[in-house]
């Protein structure tokens, strides 16, 4: 049950651009067990999509460069694999739902055919059975009138409907590992909830592992077992979903949790933001990449990159604030109040 | 209340063959007042983008009227009127990938319309305007020389926002402008949109599905389902006293950043009830309208 199916070790991905070398992923490490969901959250541009595309070996080369690292899928390193070897893994064992649905849809092919092709590649069944399965999948992802929609082209679908077709295609392959890059970002909350329920159900029956990239912290709380928080090409905090939401340690994670409006937020107040902008990854800053935006930054943050400090068996954070000699900084009030509110509600329920 | 900037009357937009059309927008009417933000939420595929695109003339509408500042948007216009109109109304597009030309730099994209409108002719002036727009959306001026395909999804969306702001419009249709952004940038962009609104008395139609953000930014909210507006009212009323079952279902599905409560979430599923021709808007409280027949609206109110 709890076999590790994926180990990513010191992954570094660069892009050669006109302006210089972009260090998009700067030493990422994580593991994934069978049947587990890892959510990756983090700043836009922090390397979430590049990391997940790298797992599928989908970084265009050039301009992309696999600078270093290993991607061990069931113990086998994917990085040295040829395109031909890789195409067997892709779609079959690892499937991906892309952030941009149009990259996976062929604009000139009817939706139905795009799904049945994938089914036929993976299962030895007849065309008419594949069609039945495709319509079933369209229904499962909440597309109304699936028979009519089956015959349409992608441009006749709304943004969110296209995304649902892409989800249906990924599920059609029945993969061992599903990488979903912002799969529900384009969807309304009711359809989103349906899709999340569907993914969880499939995970339960097939013991699928899922990497779920999203910036919606509500969705993370709903789907994740473990959470990785990324900043400037690195994982800065890693832990179980409860550790990240109820006991966050990295100031960037505090910033993320503090930026969300509450349903009861007062509209006259400005939302809290993390000041400043993300660092230029062509010239990553010395020391802690988050220092310039961190109101709790220490002198050492500008000098030396912090290591991953271990907080519990499962919880790690890359910030000098966890050094035994660092001043004890409490979680900012905006975040701690919210956490207390959630936990208080929990206590009431348990009485 | 301030004056009506936009009046939408019985707008319809059908696609496909006329004998079996997809009724993307099926006869909707609403007003947007100067300086307000109207949030538009609803199921994926219910016609939100089509509504926005029809308002801004990206489609020839099938029926109805759109009146902007007293003028018929879809009526005949001189080239000059058209130019003026295009400047006043801008749209931030849902899909940051499809809406930016990958072979242009961010700076070129943002300043694209300056020539047509004869703005910032001086090179230095133009560079400064581009830099200030980039900074306003949380990017920096070095990004001006990078090509669109070199940016992440969220970064591209911010370029789209900077482009929409570049001509100082008075009305902006923002089609899921923040969906692709991480929460802290979302907060930055929402703060920015609010601040610009205050400074320039901007009016927004804000299409989104992140309901907590919509609640925060909108004065009023319209809820759409299958081509029709089913409920419209002040943001607080929609949140705290929803009447239409679809609105209730939508509110029950908002995920919270609280793993323990998420593990117990029970969603109210929505089962669509067809309403007959006698359906219309019923005012259930001040400025709060629900679409249905007399009997259904009464029933929904009773099950509150
Ligand atoms: N083809 C490319 N050429 C140059 N730079 C690139 C390329 N693709 C990505 N990058 C850069 O790599 C960094 C990481 O991008 P990535 O798409 O992984 O971000 P992300 O975390 O997925 O962000 P978002 O939440 O906005 O999708 C960004 O700084 C981006 O500009
Ligand atoms: N160009 C088109 N041709 C045919 N049908 C279309 C076209 N554009 C949209 N539609 C259809 O119109 C309906 C409404 O689409 P629209 O894009 O307005 O939805 P939306 O509410 O914006 O959804 P989303 O939240 O997924 O973006 C959908 O059924 C869609 O398939
Ligand atoms: Mg991405
Ligand atoms: Mg849309």
Automatic annotation (TrEMBL), chain A:
SMART domains cross-referenced by the UniProt entry: AAA
Gene3D superfamilies for the chain: P-loop containing nucleotide triphosphate hydrolases
Domain ABC transporter: 6-257
Domain of life of the source: Bacteria
Molecular function in Gene Ontology: ATP binding
Listed Pfam families: ABC_tran, oligo_HPY
Residues annotated as signal peptide: none
UniProt keyword Transcription regulation, yes or no: no
Keyword terms, alphabetized: ATP-binding, Cell membrane, Membrane, Nucleotide-binding, Transport
Subcellular location: Cell membrane
Membrane topology: Peripheral membrane protein
InterPro entries recorded: AAA+_ATPase (IPR003593), ABC_Ni/Peptide_Import (IPR050388), ABC_transporter-like_ATP-bd (IPR003439), ABC_transporter-like_CS (IPR017871), Oligopep_ABC_C (IPR013563), P-loop_NTPase (IPR027417)
Keyword check for Hydrolase: no
Family label: Belongs to the ABC transporter superfamily.
NCBIfam families: oligo_HPY (TIGR01727)
UniProt name for this protein: ABC transporter ATP-binding protein
Source organism (scientific name): Viridibacillus soli
UniProt lineage: Bacteria, Bacillati, Bacillota, Bacilli, Bacillales
From TrEMBL, chain B:
Gene3D superfamilies: P-loop containing nucleotide triphosphate hydrolases
One function term, GO molecular function aspect: ATP binding
PROSITE patterns according to UniProt: ABC_TRANSPORTER_1, ABC_TRANSPORTER_2
ABC transporter domain location: 6-251
Keywords: ATP-binding, Nucleotide-binding, Transport
Source organism superkingdom: Bacteria
SUPFAM superfamilies from the UniProt entry: P-loop containing nucleoside triphosphate hydrolases
SMART domains in the cross-refs: AAA
Family matches, as Pfam families: ABC_tran, oligo_HPY
PANTHER family, per the entry: D,D-DIPEPTIDE TRANSPORT ATP-BINDING PROTEIN DDPF-RELATED, TRANSPORT ATP-BINDING PROTEIN
Family from the record: Belongs to the ABC transporter superfamily.
Name this protein carries in UniProt: ABC transporter ATP-binding protein
Organism: Viridibacillus soli
């Amino acid at each position: 049950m709890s076999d590790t199916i994926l180990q990513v070790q010191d992954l570094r991905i660069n892009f050669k651009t006109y302006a210089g070398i972009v260090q998009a992923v700067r030493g990422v490490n994580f593991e994934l067990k069978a049947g587990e969901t890892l959510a990756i959250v983090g700043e836009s541009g922090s390397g979430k999509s590049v990391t997940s595309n790298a797992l599928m070996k989908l970084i265009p080369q050039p301009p992309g460069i696999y600078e270093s690292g290993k991607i061990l899928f069931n113990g086998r390193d994917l990085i040295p694999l040829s395109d031909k070897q890789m195409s067997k893994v892709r779609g079959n064992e690892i499937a991906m739902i892309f952030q941009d649905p149009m990259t996976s849809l062929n604009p000139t092919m009817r939706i139905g055919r795009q799904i049945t092709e994938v089914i036929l590649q993976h299962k030895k069944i007849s065309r008419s059975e594949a069609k039945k399965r495709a319509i079933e999948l369209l229904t499962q992802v909440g597309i109304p009138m699936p028979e009519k929609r089956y015959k349409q082209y992608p441009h006749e679908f709304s943004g969110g409907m296209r995304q649902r077709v892409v989800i249906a295609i990924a599920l059609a392959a029945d993969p061992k590992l599903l990488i979903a890059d912002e799969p529900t970002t384009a969807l309304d909350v009711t359809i989103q909830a349906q899709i999340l329920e569907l993914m969880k159900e499939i995970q339960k029956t097939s013991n699928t592992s899922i990497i779920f990239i999203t910036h919606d912290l509500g969705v993370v709380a709903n789907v994740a077992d473990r959470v990785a928080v990324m900043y400037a090409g690195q994982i800065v905090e890693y832990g179980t979903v409860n550790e990240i939401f109820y006991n966050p340690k990295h100031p960037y994670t505090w910033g993320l949790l503090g930026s969300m409006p509450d349903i009861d937020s007062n509209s006259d107040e400005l939302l809290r933001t993390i000041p400043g902008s993300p660092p230029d990854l062509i010239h990553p800053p010395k020391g802690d990449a988050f220092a310039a935006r961190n109101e709790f930054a220490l002198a050492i943050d500008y000098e030396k990159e912090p290591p991953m400090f271990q907080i519990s068996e499962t919880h790690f954070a890359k910030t000098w604030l966890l050094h035994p000699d660092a001043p004890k900084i409490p979680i900012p009030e905006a975040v701690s109040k919210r956490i207390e509110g959630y936990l208080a509600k929990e206590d009431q329920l348990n009485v | 209340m301030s004056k009506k900037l936009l009046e939408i009357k019985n707008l319809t937009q059908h696609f496909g063959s006329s004998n079996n059309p997809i009724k993307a927008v099926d006869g909707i009417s609403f007003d947007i007042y100067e300086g307000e933000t109207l949030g538009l939420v609803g199921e994926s595929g219910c016609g939100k983008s089509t509504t926005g695109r029809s308002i801004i003339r990206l489609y020839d509408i099938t029926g109805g009227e759109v009146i902007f500042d007293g003028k018929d948007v879809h009526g005949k216009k001189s080239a000059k009127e058209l130019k003026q109109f295009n400047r006043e109304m801008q749209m931030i597009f849902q899909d940051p990938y499809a809406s930016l030309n990958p072979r242009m730099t961010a700076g070129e994209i943002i300043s694209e319309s300056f020539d047509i409108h004869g703005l910032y002719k001086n090179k230095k002036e133009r560079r400064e305007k581009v830099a200030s727009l980039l900074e306003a959306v949380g990017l920096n001026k070095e990004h001006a020389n990078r090509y669109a395909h070199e940016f992440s999804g969220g970064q591209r969306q911010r370029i789209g926002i900077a482009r929409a702001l570049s001509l100082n419009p008075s009305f902006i249709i923002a089609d899921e402008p923040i969906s692709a952004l991480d929460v802290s940038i979302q907060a930055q962009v929402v703060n920015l949109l609010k601040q610009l609104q205050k400074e320039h008395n901007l009016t927004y139609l804000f299409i989104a599905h992140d309901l907590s953000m919509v609640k925060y930014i909108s004065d009023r909210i319209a809820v759409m389902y299958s081509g029709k507006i089913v409920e419209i009212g002040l943001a607080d009323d929609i949140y705290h006293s929803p009447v239409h079952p679809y609105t209730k279902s939508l509110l029950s599905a908002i995920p919270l950043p609280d793993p323990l409560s998420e593990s117990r979430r029970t969603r109210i599923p929505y089962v669509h009830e067809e309403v007959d021709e006698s359906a219309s808007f019923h005012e259930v409280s001040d400025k709060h309208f629900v679409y249905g027949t007399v009997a259904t609206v009464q029933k929904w109110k009773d099950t509150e």
